[in-house]
Predict the structure of Spermidine/putrescine-binding protein.
Amino acid sequence: MNSTRRPFSRRLSWLAVLVFATSVIQAQAQEQVIIASTGGAYDRALKKAWFDPFTAETGIAVMVVSATNAEMRAKAAAMVKAGNINWDLYLDGEIQAASEAHREVTEDLTEFCAAYTARPDLARNACAAGGALLQSTATLLVYRKSETTRVPETWADMWDLAGLSGRTGIPELR
């Protein structure tokens, strides 16, 4: 996707938390990589666009484990704590991948990413310490006029949850 179409900072980007290429070395010994994803149609699309071509080119099978994003983060933390890591990759959001909690359970990819910083065909932050960009989507901030008397006019207003009435869909990322 051409990152100049819209300001990248407005898009939530899903990241491959550990970069596929770094897993290949380990995977060649075991002839498979294990990737945690959210399942369903999304996994079928990943299989067709990424996993099947990768397997065809390398002979390395891609095994997918399905879980919610929260389950993936919890399982990754538990695997690191136990010293028994059996996933090669898991998918996480850009916001989550930049968090301290994420960095505590994943490898720092800063050195790996250095080779990709000058590539004109990649978004500026296609590869970062917390992961590699897999795709870009949009994040929308909306509110219901019928549920609040205070109309958010700035980002600060939107994140001021104490000043909002009604339910929110804002994730807690602590």
Summary: The longest strand covers residues 131-138. The helical segments are 20-30, 40-58, 69-82, 94-97, 100-103, 110-113, 155-159. The chain has two domains: 13-137, 140-174.
